[in-house]
Amino acid sequence: MIPKVVPHRGDGNSSWRQAVEYVSRHSPEREAELDREAGDIDRTAAELARDIELAGRYDDEAALSHPSRDATLRAAYDAELSADGPPPSKARTLSQAPTLGRVGVLRLEGQEEEHAKVKDEAEYGRDPSRPTMFTNCLSVRTAHAEMKAVSDMCSRAKDPVYHTLLSWRPGERPSDAQMFEAGHASMKAVGMEGHQYVFAVHRDTGNDHLHMLINRVNPETYKAVYPSRDFYKLDRVCREVELAQGWEHDKGQYAVIDRDGQKAIVRASKETRMQEKRPTKARDMEEVGGQESLFSYARGEPRQAVAALLKDPRTSWQDLHGELAKHGLELREKGQGLAIYDKTHPERTPIKASDMHEGLGRGKLVKRLGEYQPPIRAIQIEQPARSYDKHREPARDPSRRDQAREERAQARARLRQQYDEWLSEQTKARQQSRAALRTGDRARFTDLAAHHKARREQIRRTDMPAPMRKALYSVAAMEALQAREQLRAELDDKRKAERADRPQNFREWTGDRAQEGDQAAISQLRGWAYADRRRAKELEKAEQENAKKDGITIEAPAGRQEPLSPRRLAMLDQLGYQVDRRTGDVHYQAKERHVFTDSGRRITFSAAGATDREALAAGLALARQKFGQTLTLTGSEQFKDEAIRVTVEKRLDVRLADPALEARRKVLEAARDVAKPHPRERAQERNQVPDKGRGGQER
């Protein structure tokens, strides 16, 4: 099994109706059928929403606690809003919650066989284009309206549609019940248990797969869930489902290994992949006897040497034999294939050549090097620089390393759970403190209003003349206004201080725990440090590669340069853009083609963007705003020439750091001014008045 997470849009244009229609293979015939299935419940909900007198008729605990209550309520309100007549009151419709909740209970009781039951096995395959559907909404027909009603309650959810799928291997035929079980396990893994969902079983391809549409917004708390590293969590669920249901293990981020006679799920790595291929005798030899197997020895330095040799297209059979002989190994024919033998003790059991390296398979080598050739005499008698010794302890025990990695992962998970609990307590305490402060603030405004009212009443009761009372009323009103403004300023300062005093984030909190000697926190900090160093190396390598491409940069960037917001430059309005959530790079598109990327320190153009004059102009304008007036052009001479022409043609206020390029730019700029001067210069020439002497002649 493998998972796939569909990238979310993030632009607020997701449609529940389109998503449900996509996974359900929507068609007019299917629409008519769904209308017949759900028509009664829709009419009942609309009638109940319009009738206030029925509000308390079914006011029971089942209706009040039903999870679809609020969703059904919103769907009924929308239905009433689109009906003829005056628009309803949302407050009145909200009073129908118990009644509409009862509608959901009636639906589940009356249509249980159709709503929640898995269809009979004999029905599968009759029409693969019509998938089996599962939902915890009232029906598939009303699911999109119910899910939208819940997602609308969370204004911060830009893309409430969470779309993922689970795919089984070719030839595996899971039942709908097994797919349903896998889907629920996946929802629990990503923290969306209890959320609204629509599952669709598709069997019309070579791989049976389950589409899952899940509402990110919780139907009870109305909070959106955006799971981190969800692909890894789903991949682990796939391994768990494979173990539980007996499917063949697929490759992914997690692997299943044998540990102390039991199956264990660990993060996949070179060691775990090697352990999966390791023969049983080799595993027993290392884990029980504490000796290094020929398999592990060959997969070490000899494998690296062979991999480097195979990259050379001039490699021959004798080159391969000679490299293996340096490590005390020999490549021989065995049956229909090739095998790796211990040259010192050829009587020992060999290993498959392809187990040492996938490029040593007989078919691949014959296709590349020709028919097999045995080693020449000189190579056969050559003394190896190193050889295999079974009494040598394994250089690295993969099982122990995997076990240590799993223990670290579990300790870090517990550390994160402790932080979440601490943050929850801090959040509750802050909410209570804010509620108390808000109550006190309202009381202070109330006191001010009461004081001003008493002051006006005192003025009214005096025996002063009317003009004098009018003046006192004005002074009192001004004093009250000044007091309110002073109080508002004081409360604003206090709120800013509250916002600044935020709870620690996970990294800060972990640093404090590490100072206290928490081993899990120390391990987490070390892991972050390793990740930061790896990331820095990746960025440095990417910078070196991009420096050779067509692009714009500055000669000596001062400090860290961040990508510019696409909303800061009017010329970029004609371009689309997409932000890489991992690196922060901004990729710009024109006419659905990638044209250039803003990676902070430089702007790199694609092949399409380097020849698009409008894209070049936009990139140059972006570079001018980011880097200043002086720019450095990199890449091919053709790109530099085109960039200079665009700079001159668009009259961009740009200078080039390369003296030769700057000289070419000035030449083109002078030729442009002679052929087609700037409109402002032509206007000055028209407005210029000739200076005439006394005789009327121009001087």
From TrEMBL:
Residues 136-247 form the MobA/VirD2-like nuclease domain. It holds the Pfam family LPD7. Residues 378-413, 492-520, 671-699 are annotated as: Disordered. It comes from the Bacteria. Residues 577-666 form the Large polyvalent protein-associated domain. Residues 280-374 form the TraI-like middle domain. Residues 387-410, 492-516 have a biased composition (Basic and acidic residues). This is Relaxase/mobilization nuclease family protein. It comes from Thiomonas intermedia (strain K12) (Thiobacillus intermedius). The lineage of its organism: Bacteria, Pseudomonadati, Pseudomonadota, Betaproteobacteria, Burkholderiales.
